[in-house]
Design goal:
This protein has about 80 residues and is α+β, with helices and mostly antiparallel strands. The chain has one domain: 2-Layer Sandwich (Macrophage Migration Inhibitory Factor), CATH 3.30.429.10. The protein is built from two helices and four strands; from the N terminus they run E-H-E-E-E-H. The chain has a two-stranded parallel sheet. It has a two-stranded antiparallel ribbon with strand order 3-4. The longest helix has 19 residues. It is elongated.
Length: about 80
């Protein structure tokens, strides 16, 4: 039984997109393991508090993640 654990910065991925993420990750596992594994594939989305994530030695926030998704650079100093 595959368990895929995905960590996300809180308040960045809205509920509808979280469900899409779960479905697409499951589909990727099924593409490799076959349809029979679908009902045994678990996807766990875990939120990490904004600022408790770090990149390049600096805190990374929900605002930073949203800016990155819009094609902007890291905004925290």
């Amino acid at each position: 039984m595959p368990l895929i654990h995905v960590k996300l910065i809180e308040n960045v991925v809205p509920p509808a997109k979280r469900q899409e993420l779960i479905a697409r990750i499951t589909d990727a596992v099924v593409a490799v393991g076959g349809e029979g594994i679908r009902s045994h594939t678990w996807v766990l989305l875990e939120d990490v508090k904004s600022g408790d994530w770090g990149i390049a030695g600096k805190g990374f926030t929900s605002d930073d993640a949203r800016a990155l998704a819009l094609g902007r650079s890291h905004v925290s100093s």
